[in-house]
Design goal:
Helix content is 43%, strand content 34%. By secondary structure, the protein is of the alpha/beta class. The strands form two sheets. Strands 1, 2, 3, 4, 5 and 6 form a six-stranded mixed sheet that branches. A two-stranded antiparallel sheet has the order 7-8. Helix 3 crosses helix 6.
């Protein structure tokens, strides 16, 4: 009986490892990939942040992280934008499989990465008095990205990222989150960290390590 259980468990583990290896192997190194502009959830992201292109900024950081990973052949963003614009396709946020296939044909890539900035929020808001009141807080950004095989329409992987950045008044460029003004730099830093974390998770799920 024990031998039978041991044999069954061994077979299960072998199948699991085989499946995991096959999954990783299906994403070949230097595969062609294009990153779409990320969308935003209007109900979750304050309109002031939305105006300052949080989705577009996040996609740029995703591209930066992918290029640095040296795992993919990442298509130049300006070429992607020009070709997509010429075809008048909506590629921001969620993308259906039919649109994805069309994107693949237009761009000549096997994979696309797209997603949303889920929210940009504040925490630990306080006021420090140094001659005059200065608001200090933490800016948080969350995003979710999806990698799709445009030939099959299958989503290969989903990854979420979170980024945090300290902010205080005094910068020339301020953005309003609710009724609090924060620096543009702090918002971008939070978006960058969330994008880098999401890409790192993506790479670990695809290759076992970043």
């Amino acid at each position: 009986m024990m031998n039978k259980i041991f044999f069954t468990v061994t077979i299960f583990i072998a199948i699991f490892l085989s499946t995991s290896t096959t999954f990783a192997a299906t994403i070949e190194k230097n595969a062609s990939v294009a990153v779409m502009d990320f969308g935003t959830h209007p109900e979750a992201v304050p309109i002031d942040i939305d105006i300052f292109n949080a989705g577009k900024v996040a996609s740029e950081y995703v591209i930066d992280s992918l290029v640095k990973s040296n795992k993919f052949d990442v298509m130049d963003k300006s070429i992607v934008e020009d070709r997509i614009k010429a075809e008048k396709l909506n590629t921001t946020g969620i993308i259906d499989s039919d649109t994805a296939r069309r994107i693949g044909q237009i761009l000549g890539v096997k994979y696309i990465i797209y997603g949303n900035v889920n929210d940009v929020t504040l925490s630990d808001v306080s006021t420090k008095v140094i001659g005059s009141g200065v608001t200090v807080c933490t800016v948080k950004a969350h995003l979710i990205l999806r990698m799709m095989n445009v030939e099959t329409g299958d989503i290969i992987c989903i990854a979420k990222g979170e980024g945090k950045s300290k902010s205080s008044g005094g910068s020339v460029v301020l953005l309003d989150v609710g009724n609090v003004s924060v620096t543009q730099t702090s918002v971008h830093n939070a978006l960058k960290k969330s994008a880098f974390q999401a890409v790192d998770i993506l790479l670990k799920r695809l290759y076992g390590k970043s």
